[in-house]
Amino acid sequence: MSVDFRVEHPDDATHADEQSQLSDRLEAIVMLAIAVILIIGFLIH
Q1: Residue 36 sits in which domain range?
Q2: What pLDDT score does 20 carry?
């Protein structure tokens, strides 16, 4: 029944895609932040 419900309401899939894109962006931002912190740390020391 849940499968039929998802098929009838594609909005749920679009919201899931948006959340996955946001999570990917957050992961990229975190990786960039860590890289910047490491570079600054090496420059200071």
Answers
A1: 2-44
A2: 83
Q: How many CB atoms lie within 10 A of CB 6?
A: 13
The set of residues, in sequence order, having a beta carbon less than 8 Å from that of 12 and lying 6+ positions away, is: 6
Number of domains in the chain: 1
Q: At a CB cut-off of 8 Å and minimum separation 6, what does 13 contact?
A: 6
1-45 pLDDT, tens digit per residue, is: 455 555 555 555 566 677 788 889 999 999 999 999 999 999 997
